[in-house]
Amino acid sequence: MTLLYFTIQMDQLGGVHDIISDGVDGYIVKFGDVDAYADKLATLITSREERKRLADNAYQSVHKFDREVVMQKWCKLFSDLIKCV
Questions:
Q1: How many C-beta neighbours within 10 Å does residue 35 have?
Q2: Contact present, 22 and 3 (Cβ < 8 Å)
Q3: Nearest one of 82, 85, 18, 27 to 53, comparing CA atoms
Q4: Longest Cα pair distance anywhere in the chain, in angstroms?
Q5: Residues 36-57: pLDDT tens digits?
Q6: pTM
Q7: Between the N and C ends of the chain, which has fewer C-beta atoms within 10 Å?
Q8: Distances from the Cα of 27 to the Cαs of 34, 38, 63, 78, in angstroms?
């Protein structure tokens, strides 16, 4: 079974832009803009190709959040901080 992952997210949270690239691996709409949200949802309901494109891109971009990748970034940050002291 193939699972498709993508999201439509309202931009009320500052970090959403660090996780989702609008129009690439999901959609970001302005907080409270239910018309824009409904429009994106309608696009996904009616376009199998768009669902697949977003899901494929989301699957590829999720690897930047792998534990090993994140830990390397944290280790580099702490290493750099220690060098500054």
A1: 10
A2: no
A3: 27
A4: 56
A5: 999 999 999 999 999 999 999 9
A6: 0.73
A7: N
A8: 13, 11, 19, 33
